[in-house]
């Protein structure tokens, strides 16, 4: 961390936090309902849609570990991530600031600089200040380093998650379909290979390096269906150009293992103190290339990736059980945006789902969309003995409220400048009497937004709509006319109440 970052950050955090017990929480604690300092795991899936997991009534694939979690907790049916793509969704989850208010929070390239400003207050700061061990493991996609025109991957990258409140991080810089395809631990490439320095560009290829476009015969693992035809790593072409990496390059079929291994390790190392783990799976983002043992679903690689995701959940639950931590660990399982079938690789997701699996359940649109499929995601909360078990709740819930709800859990009062769009929704999230949000903003492609107000959904018109998101076929929900839907009678958003 540079001196400049350090100073700015310490000042901001000092301003943001005053530790005093919020009255409602103090009273609940006095009644013995809430554990003093539970561990907290935010288990964030990538691109898992509302209809993808067993508790949400999907067909075509079973996810028993997620099912078990839902039975030991409460499942929400109207919960939303903030945005229909990863970077703005994660930005808002961690900061409690609506991403659509900042133009520079769109889907980040693999060499983007850090998008969360180090002086911004994050949920990791909250936990760290409260004495928790804090870790970020898995997909990151919020930028690293501070160079606006690309990073030097052969040096320590700064800022990195450690500058945002995380004591420990083991992350992929962006997505599995974007270079660089290496792991980064506390700002440094893991297994760095000095004989093969790393170069990354999102503008030009490096002389002599094959691309998927020019050398499709080298794509022995997965071929693109659209885009994704630049540098080839592990027999799969990606977005962006990369040279070098040597032994540091990941193998896609081992990504989930790697994430699980580091998550389990983090939990073990912190078993005797409270911890906050921001655990982000790569599953089920493209390229979907899970390990062999999961290649059994009738939905092909996309279904197999769901099974692998369930395997990760199983490993985390088992480890908590084994260490005697399950009763004292709050788990929030959710997804960063809605579901998508063909997101750029030829994995037959669309063909195999046809007639048997609806990734967003009854909802219209999907990833990238302003329709409900874009942000309405699985959301399961479990804390045995505190959160009612086996219940289903229909209140309106948004990821934007993580930060202030966690502050409430810890009995910390935040200054108004921290997490400006976040509200304390703890009693709803824990299913202990809250009735959820009345008003909420959802973000689609770019900075387009839709507004939820109770049962109503309003999508403001845009001048030049993009109707579909690339070749995914997904409707973005953008239109030149205003749209209003009554979700209580029309959850599929088929009847625009404002249409003449
Ligand atoms: C899109 C990619 C898509 C995915 C997405 C980000 C193309 C044609 N599509 O640009 O494959 O990577 O970005 O997904 O390149 S997210 O879940 O990380 O937001
Ligand atoms: Ca995503």
Radius of gyration: 21 Å
Instruction: Provide the structure class.
Output: alpha/beta
Q: How much strand content do the residues show?
A: 15-25%
Instruction: Describe the strand arrangement of the main beta sheet, using strand numbers.
Output: 7-6-5-4-12-2-13-14-3-15
Q: Tell me the major beta sheet.
A: 10 strands, mixed
Question: Given the C-alpha coordinates, what overall shape results?
Answer: globular
Overall average residue pLDDT: 94
The total beta strand count reads: 20
Listed once per kind, the bound small molecules are: 2-acetamido-2-deoxy-6-O-sulfo-beta-D-galactopyranose, calcium ion
Query: Count of helical segments?
Result: 11
Q: Could you tell me how far the N terminus lies from the C terminus, measured between alpha carbons in angstroms? A: 57 Å
* Residues in helices, as a percent range: 10-25%
- In terms of per-residue confidence, which ranges show pLDDT below 50 for 5 or more consecutive residues? 1-23
Q: Can you tell me about this structure?
A:
It is a single chain. Helix 6 (255-269) packs parallel to helix 7 (301-322). The termini are far apart. The chain has helices spanning 3-16, 23-30, 64-71, 86-95, 123-129, 255-269, 301-322, 349-353, 372-375, 402-410, 426-429; strands spanning 17-18, 39-45, 74-80, 133-139, 168-172, 183-185, 188-189, 199-201, 232-233, 236-237, 241-243, 275-280, 329-335, 379-382, 391-398, 413-414, 439-443, 449-453, 456-459, 483-486. Strand 9 and strand 10 form a beta hairpin. It is globular, with a radius of gyration of 21 Å. The protein is 21% helix and 18% strand. It has 500 residues and is α/β, with parallel strands linked by helices. The chain has a 10-stranded mixed beta sheet with strand order 7-6-5-4-12-2-13-14-3-15, with helices on both faces.
């Amino acid at each position: 961390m540079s001196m400049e970052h350090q100073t700015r950050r310490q000042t901001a955090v000092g301003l943001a936090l005053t530790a005093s017990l919020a009255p409602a929480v103090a009273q609940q604690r006095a009644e013995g309902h809430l554990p003093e300092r539970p561990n907290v795991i935010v288990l964030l899936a990538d691109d898992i849609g509302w209809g993808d997991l067993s508790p949400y009534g999907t067909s075509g694939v079973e996810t028993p570990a997620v099912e078990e979690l839902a039975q030991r907790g409460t499942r929400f049916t109207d919960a939303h991530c903030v945005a229909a793509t990863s970077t703005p969704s994660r930005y808002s989850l961690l900061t409690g600031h609506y991403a659509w208010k900042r133009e520079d929070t769109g889907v980040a390239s693999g060499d983007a600089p850090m998008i969360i400003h180090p002086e911004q207050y994050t949920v990791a700061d909250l936990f760290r200040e409260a004495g928790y061990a804090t870790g970020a493991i898995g997909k990151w996609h919020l930028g690293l380093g501070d160079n606006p025109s690309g990073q030097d991957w052969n040096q320590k990258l700064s800022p990195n998650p450690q500058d945002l409140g995380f004591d420990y991080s083991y992350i992929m810089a962006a997505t599995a379909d974007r270079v660089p395809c290496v792991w980064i631990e506390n700002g440094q490439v893991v297994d760095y290979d000095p004989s093969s320095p790393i170069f990354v560009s999102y503008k030009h290829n490096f002389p002599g390096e094959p691309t998927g476009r020019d050398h499709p015969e080298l794509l022995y693992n997965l071929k693109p269906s659209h885009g994704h035809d630049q540098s080839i790593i592990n027999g799969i072409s990606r977005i962006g150009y990369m040279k070098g990496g040597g032994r540091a390059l990941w193998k896609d079929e081992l990504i989930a293992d790697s994430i699980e291994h580091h998550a389990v390790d983090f939990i073990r190392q912190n078993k005797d103190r409270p911890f906050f783990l921001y655990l982000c799976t790569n599953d089920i983002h493209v390229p979907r290339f899970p390990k062999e043992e999961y290649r059994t679903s009738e939905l092909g690689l996309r279904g197999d990736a769901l099974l692998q995701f369930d395997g990760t959940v199983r490993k985390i639950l088992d480890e908590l059980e084994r260490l005697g931590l399950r009763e004292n660990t709050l788990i929030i399982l959710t997804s960063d945006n809605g579901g998508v079938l063909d997101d750029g690789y030829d994995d037959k997701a669309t063909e195999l789902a046809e007639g048997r699996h609806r990734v967003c359940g009854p909802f219209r649109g999907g990833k990238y969309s302003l329709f409900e499929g874009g942000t309405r995601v699985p959301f399961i909360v479990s804390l045995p003995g505190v959160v009612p078990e086996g219940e289903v709740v229909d209140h309106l819930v948004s990821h934007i409220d993580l930060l202030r709800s966690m502050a409430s859990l810890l009995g910390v009062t935040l200054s108004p400048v921290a997490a400006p769009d976040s509200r304390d929704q703890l009693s709803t999230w824990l299913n202990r009497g809250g009735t959820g949000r009345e008003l909420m903003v959802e973000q689609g492609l770019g900075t387009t937004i839709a507004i939820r107000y109770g049962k109503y959904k309003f999508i403001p018109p845009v001048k030049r709509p993009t109707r579909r998101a690339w070749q995914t076929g997904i409707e973005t929900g953008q239109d030149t006319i205003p749209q209003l839907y009554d979700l209580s009678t029309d959850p599929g958003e088929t009847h625009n109440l404002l249409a003449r």
